[in-house]
Amino acid sequence: MLNVSGLAVARGGVCVLSGVGFTLAPGQALILRGPNGVGKTTLLRTLAGLQPPLAGSVACGEDVIAYAGHADGVKPTLTVTENLTFWAQVFGGGGIGAAMAAFDLDGLADRAAQNLSAGQKRRLGLARMMVTGRPLWMFDEPTVSLDAASVGLFETAVRVHLAGGGAAIMATHIDLGLTDARVLDLSPFRPQPGGVRTGNAPTGDEAFL
Amino acid sequence: MIALLRRDMAVATRAGGGFGLGLAFFLVVVVLVPLSVGPDTAVLSRIAPGILWLGALLACLLSLDRIFALDFEDGSLDLLATAPLPLEGAVAVKAFAHWLTTGLPLTLMAPVLGVLLNLPVPGYRWLLASLLLGTSALSVIGAFGAALTVGLRRGGLLLSLLVLPLYVPTLIFGAEVARRGAEGMPVATPLALLAGISLGCAALMPFAAAAALRVNLR
User: Fold this and answer.
1) What is the pLDDT of residues A76-115, one digit of tens each?
2) Residues of B with CB below 8 A from A206's CB?
3) CATH topology (fold) of A24-52+61-188
4) Number of H helices, E strands in chain B
5) Taking a C-beta distance cutoff of 8 angstroms, is the pair A125, A139 a contact?
6) ipTM of this model?
7) Which residues of chain B are at the A interface, by a Cβ-Cβ cutoff of 8 Å?
8) Which pTM value belongs to this model?
9) Average pLDDT of span B87-107
10) Is A206–B82 a contact, with Cβ atoms under 8 angstroms apart?
11) Contact partners, residue A40, CB within 8 Å, separation at least 6
12) Shortest CA distance from B214: residue in chain A
């Protein structure tokens, strides 16, 4: 489903990871680990196609990836239902009932998102992944501000997704109950000091704008 | 696309969406002009088309940074960029939603405010027509400016400086249509040029804005 080889990514014009390579088949989950600043977010954004890689290749089908970043993409003045319905329509997915139920949002359906707690908002953000209908889910710190019960809901949703032939990549620090997930520690992929520097291509654009 | 349009309209018209800001600004400008210029109706009639156009343009400028900044802050822009909707289409829809919530209300309000400035009777038709055409150009050009400055904190000043020179042709021809209409002169030439500017901007600016967004999302 996803085939990454020799990938190097940069943040702010500085190469943070190089030589990253892995493959992901349907039904598999990959957990990215590493200390703060190692480049987990940058790697995920590159895989999602939000920024170009410095080197290497990401082989992945069209419209396969659903990405969930640090921010939930929730509009404060819209209700929970409206927020979720919007994303379902944008991704051309189906109904939102299953996602609402999976993340225990039914009781909050008509609440404006600005009145939700941080954890409830995060649950709404995670429920969005279910309505995208895409097979490969990418999470960046999905469990931030979730309580133990909500982490359980998240685990269950991911497990169901994997059982249905999906795949998931997540950057996280806590131990999820996904025992058969592979763990990729990103620390060894840090470039050596004075080693790889960025080319001119990405910084040239930034200087121009 | 329709979902995006509906969402943007809903966000703009609910509390804190900034829907009334441009209208209130337009009202304030037009109400204050007679007080500062004096009550001479002949002078007011002569400057009315220009003042109405300038007021509408500045009111439009006020809400530009909301086109992308809010979506950038709450992460929606990242998600839209990875959605099946092409980014160019998303930009065009968002600019259209901006026009529906800013340009169109300003256009509809302008004839009412024209009374305050003693706009000559034949001018109302052409004021409406020129604003209807021109404000759409203001929205798409503004979307491009907003896309360029989306990652910047407090990018409003830079946005205004970037967009103002791009607004000049629209203002010149738009105000010219309204002025000629008010004085009963033929308006075909400036109207055609204004329509050309609007159509050209609507066709090209979404591509430029989407390219700028892609760079800013990195």
Assistant:
1) 888 898 888 888 888 886 778 888 888 888 888 888 888 8
2) 215
3) Rossmann fold (3.40.50)
4) 10, 0
5) no
6) 0.82
7) 2-4, 6-7, 10-11, 14-17, 73-76, 78-85, 148, 212, 215-218
8) 0.88
9) 93
10) no
11) A32, A33, A34, A140, A171, A186
12) A50
